[in-house]
Amino acid sequence: MEVSCGVKPQASEEVVATEAAVESKDVENSEKIENPEELKDAEFEYLQRNEFTSEIYKIEVRNLGYFGIGEFKKLLKNKLKLDMSKIKSPLRKEFAFVCFRSQADQEKALTLLNGYKWKGKVLQAQIAKASADPLQRKRKEAENTRDSDANKRHKTSAEATCPLASMSYDKQLEQKEADMKELTRKFLNELKKTNRESKAHLEDFKYEGVLASPQVDGYRNKNEFTVGKNSDGEIVVGFRLGSYADGSVEVAEVQSLPHIPEAAKWGASSFQNFVRKSKFQPFNPEANSGHFRQLMVRVSSSHAKEIMLVAGIYSSNLSAEQLEEVKQDLKQYYSELEESGFKCTSLYYQDVKHREAGQMVSPVEHLAGTTHIQDTIHGLNFRISPLAFFQINTAGANVLYQKAIDLANPQPHSYVLDICCGTGTIALSFAKHCKQVLGVEIIPDAIKDAEFNAENNNVQNCKFFAGNADDYIQSMVREVTYGNPPGTPLDVIAVVDPPRAGLHNRSIAAIRAASAITRLVYISCNPQRAQRNWIELGRPESKQYKGDPFFPITAVAVDMFPHTAHTEMVILFERRSSEKSDKPVSSKPSEEKTLETVQEKTENDSKE
Fold first, then answer.
1. Catalytic: 250?
2. Model pTM?
3. What is the average pLDDT value for the chain, to the nearest integer?
4. Where are the beta strands (DSSP E) in 33-72?
């Protein structure tokens, strides 16, 4: 599910669950279980686990023709009142899989959809084919080929997580500059095809290359380690060497990795020792068994002794008494442990299992120590909660945000909209350069941090709102429009720093429709995926995207991730029109939602 603003995943590592891996292969591998005996095969054992998986109550809807996921979702939820958990569709868009949480919901959907007329088509619905477990599929394929796992050279942790570490840093920058230049070239060509009028607006476009990170080694202030086993069967807390979908569950230690700080390495090794001594077991993704699943370590670059540990536990296999025992063991272990100058100053438990319907993140519980850690960017002190987004390279963030400020060029009378504001780092960095900053973020705890950070730094011209960006953009624009002094030119700048998946198209549509926004700075940690948003910003005006398009003016890459292949990209967009016209923002309050009504709706939704 794509969200407007949310927790930004890390660029290099992520925990890959069995169900997620199965879903990723859904469209490619849809082997029907014609015979119940097939359930005994290793490839389908996951269906017999005592836990929900979307594969159990899945249907296949055919004869859809060309369709949009959004409009199909509206048909299912709004018109047919079907309570589905997710929709999955192949690129061909001729059919889709729809998943439900119960057999009753599945049967209701089959009854309503089979023979239903939609967009001139008669739909066909049937129980979907179940997908094989990709890990077991890979193993089965290996057994049938000469190129078996036994003959393969396994990746090292360095190859899996920081593949450029063997190169000098100058060479790394050269490669990244060339990669981003090529990506930019392809984006501009695609934009010219999408909007024929864009060519004239792109003549002065400038790509400024890549800016180096001030810190090359040990820069990651947040790391998410997996609990598993290495090739020798030893319990390890480190990084996965591959994905579940590619047939790998092996975990390797991180002690030799150059981008991990010593404090984080200590966190991994100390937790590894704890797990090895515990009577409870590491999580096994093949069988959904075991308990210790992951460890998040957050450290501070400016407060060297602050270390936050968030232990991720798979609680489905634990009784209430056993879970409490695990928590108490963790508290006692870390309260007594201090070695090599390192000590856990903030300890959390995280319940990491399959999320409930509507659940955005796995909940955390504070166990011991402080509730936050602190760090500094642009001379401002920031409080960081466990799930809040904060740039993983603090020194690099100083370069990144300064470049965003330089490109946006805010004036004393300017208003800045910080979309996906997190803990307020961008908002507070911009605050002294403009009249006011309004920020929106989907994670409520991050907004609490942002408000605290503003007050703690004595910044008085920032306001923050918790909710989906697309619900707030128009309302924030109206607030600054009404608050702008008579006779003062209205200058509204949007800054977006979304998760890797990018902004939802509803947010792009809201930005396009808010004609008061004349400049936009887009910060992306995944430029390859962000191109979809960039194209949407530059599309010709349409029913979906109202308002004049935005065209790229300047692009610059910032190396936030030395030793890896990832690069941050910052692009300045300006709104341009082929016809000279000044389109005023509507001043009729009844036609637009106010911030007060949006906040009230958000609060009511959260209560429900």
1. no
2. 0.77
3. 84
4. 58-62
